[in-house]
Structure formats: C-alpha cells, structure tokens
Amino acid sequence: MSEERIAELEARVAELEKERDAALAARDSIMREVLPVGRLGASGEGSDPRRGRSTAMLLVTFVLIAIVALLVWRMANTAKMLGRRSRAATRAGSGSSARGNVSNASNTHAHRRASHAVSVFRAGRRAAIPMLGLSYVGPLALGPRSRLLVVGGAGGRAVIYDLGSDRLLRTLAGHAGAIRDVAFDDAGKHVLTAGADGKVILWALSGAKVRELRSKPFDGLSGVRDIAVGGEIVAMAAEGDGLELATLDGRLRKRVERSQPGWVRAVAVARGGKKVAAAGEDGKIRVYGVSVGKDVFYKASSEIEGHPQWVNALAFSAKGDLLASAGFEKRVMIWDVASGKRRARLRGHVRRCTALAFDPSATLLASASLDRTIVLWDVARATKPGKDDKVRRAVLRGHRYQVNSVAFDHRGRFAVSSSGDGTVRVWPVALPPAPSRRLLPRPAKGELTLRGYTSGERRRIRVIGDDGKVLPEGRRALAYVLRSGPDDASKLPAEKLVALLYKVVDHFGRWREVVVISGYRSPRFNTLRTRQSKQVAKKSRHMRGEAIDFQIEGVSLRKLHRYVKKLKAGGLGLYPDSQFIHMDVGPVRYWGGD
Hints:
This protein is of the alpha+beta class.
C-alpha cells in the first residue's frame, strides 16, 4: 500500500477523533442547559420539576452515548483496516514465498474486498504486482516476440506488464465496462482491448490510444465478447450483431450477415489473417476465407459440426492447418481445417472450458476450464488413430477459482494463465522428449552429451582434447548450451568448471546425458531470481561462468552428490526437491546435503 494511502487513512482517524471530542463537548454543553428547562416541568402545572429534569438528562445522555459509541466503532474499524493493509503491503513487498502455486485470495469476492493487486506466481515463488488497479483478473495475451503481457479486468482497465523485468509498464483505461478480451497484433507493436461497452480500442505500447475500431454497436446492442487478430484483420464476436470484421488501420469494417445465426461466442484468426473461424450458440463452427482490398471480402469455406451445444473457445495452430474448439459439453475437439474432419476428441475437464491455446510448434494444446485447471494435451498423440492414455501431458493445478485465459510465450517455454482468484501464473512447460540417443553414436573420449532443461536442445560437444586440456571450441559450444535462458546472454564457462564437469560425467559414464538446469546467469536475470527466492545469492558464481546446476540421467542425486563431495573441488549444493545439484569452482563449501 502506498505512503499516500497510509497518510490518508491516518488523517481520517484524526478527523474521527476530533468528531468524538466535539460530540463530548456538545454533551457537556447540553447538560448545563437542560437544568432550567427541567425546572419548568415536563407536563405543565402540577408536575415534579425533578422528574422532568432527570428524564431530559437521561434522554440527552443516551443519545450522546450512542453517537460517541458510533464514532469509536468507526475509529476502531479504520485503524484495523490500516493495520491489515499495511501488513499485506509489507508481505507483498518482501516477496515472501508461497508453497507450490497457492494464492492468498480464496475466491473472486475475497479478492474484490482486498487490495486491488494482482499477483504473478513463478516457479512456486510469489512476486506481487502492487496496485494494478484491477479488481478482477480476466483475459490475457502475450506478445508474439517479447515478454510483454497484457491483462484485462473490471472497471474498464487493462495493464501491460513486462515478465522479463517484472515491471508494470502501462495502465490502459478507455472502456466504460469490464474488458472481455485482449490481444496483440502479429507484429507485437499494438494492443487491442474489447469491452462490454461495445468498444474495441487499438493502443500503442506507450499506452496512447491509437483509434477505436468499434465504438458503437451496429444495432445499439451490448458489447464484444471475443476478439482475434491475424495480419491486418480483426475479428470480433459482438453480442447481438454476430461476427464482425475490421482492419487494423480502421478504414474498413464489415458485419458478416445471415451466415452466422445466433450469438457468436468465440472467434479465431489464422496467422496472416487469411482464415477466420467463428462459433456460437448453434454448436457449429464456420470457417471463412478473408481478403482485403477496397473492402473486406469473405467467403464461407467450410462448416464444421460436432458440438451438440454452443462453442465458446477457438484457437488456430500457428500454421493454420489445425483448429481447436471447446464447448459447453466439457470436451475439446481438434479439427483439420482443410477437410473439416475431426482429428481428436479430448476428455479431461469436469466443467466447461473457457480458453484454448496452441504452443508455437503445435506440439501442445492448452485448455483452461471452470474446474480451476489447465490441461496440456499432446497434439501429435491426440491426432493419431492409435492414441493412448498419454495424450494428457500435464494437468496444471494451483488456481483457486475459474481459469479465464491461457497463452504460450513465443518460444513455447512457458504458459501463462489468469484466474478469477486475482492471480496470473507462469507455468514452465514440459517439452517433448529429447531425441533418442540411438540417433547419436557412442560418445568418444573427451565428449559430453548435454540437454537444456528449459530449451530442450540436445548437443554432443567435445570439451577435452587428446592432451587432456580443455578445448577452446568446446568452451564456446558449451557456452551456448549454458546460456542465460530469458535473455539468451552467454559467457565462456571457466576452464576449471568444464574440466570438473567432464571428470564427474566420465566417472559415471560418458554415454549418460547431462541435463542442464541452470548455467550462466546474466546480472539482470540473477537480480530477478534474488527477488523470487532467498536462496539465490546476489553475487552468484553463475554470473561468472563458474557454476552449473545439473543432473545426470540414470544417476541418483545422493550418489552424484557424494562423489562430487569427495573431489573437494569447490562449492556443492544438494536440492532434492528440485532434483539437481549445484556445483561451482569457488571455495570449498557444502549445503543441502548430509
């Protein structure tokens, strides 16, 4: 909570104290004035003066006591609220850890009563984004070639947030009602927001409003439920108006009439804007071929039937050859766009889906649901005739309320989701299995086989020459594998570290694969990690290229830890929960082990 807000609450407490003192003074003044009135009697001639005086005094005292009690109660509540918000702000500012992915807000209503802050959870660590001005976290979208995140909420506000630096960049305020959907254009230079007020606004990343692509509904009805962008085409699902198409420059706009009966609840645009899909209450999905000239031209190319009830989520794959849909019946469908045939019908949610997203390679499909989970589906297995029970790659749990939106980053390394519990969560994505080692010959002397845990890259590198010395070209190749994940920065690893790593792997078998959890960390990335975890050193040897976090395939962590400890070559840490050991060539020291 900001200092200005704390000062405002303290000033309010002071005002209430003044009101209490004024009420007490007024009571004393009235008590002094009622004595002459009491002597006249309360009922005229024949009444007892003392009885009238005591009755008036009792009435006045009762009223003033009630006023004072009310003021004291208000003061106590204000002070209690001040203390509660101060403690919450202190906890948020300190970056305290949260076990697993559990949010402090139990449901939407509790979040609305609390501070208007949205929390981003990453790898089990909590980092609060203070005072975003969002009382409800709704749709989100990730930039196509950046770490920018846009999140929409109630009150007509959306925010642009940088996941790379963990900073709030902009607040977008231009709608009169809740924001229903958000999107980036293909170039990542503009943000679009669609609201319940019927507006679709195009924003620059600077926060400046560029133009309104839709300011008034055609028939004066309600707002826009869903938007999608591809190329220069913007598709809009307008309540009561059906499917509408517009261009990003705002010069062309058209309503697709008579082709889409009923309300359109979901739209999707293939990359490049050549195909548009729309679906709604009749359970049918219609795919249109779209082109732009002097007007927006569209032609219905196929009509897909398969959902018995309405469809409320659509997503194209990056190539536009696959289309995913989800409806009220809790199933997810994958369709071949060219033929209109169903490729897969996936079951796994217990309540209806709210959002769908393909990763950039169309290897994974993420489906969000009202059941508070996100399911990652293996698209390759799902679309094969002989699919098995491994179609579900993972079930992501942690949100305490419905999941409203889900998206992948442009490299497919993580997914981001938003929920009505007031949180945005970043989920590391399990990549497809590494290529079989049969594709590579048995490693020769001096060679290592490494695989990046986050990148999924697998490489065979010769790091030791025939003379037993570290090869310069091996260090350079190893620097690429050990590069800093978020910003791709690299640094030559220390020769001692390369020699030590090879000695350890050679002891257990050169044919075993080394899984690299973390290698080099740029100073910027290391600073972010220190904010997320107290276990990260501010002057980490990862920044010098002198440390590596790793595991060896087929070797238990305890066994690996015991052997490296015998070498006494530097720092050694055991992390059994995260399944890796830390090894560096600094001073000899140990932690985390027995």
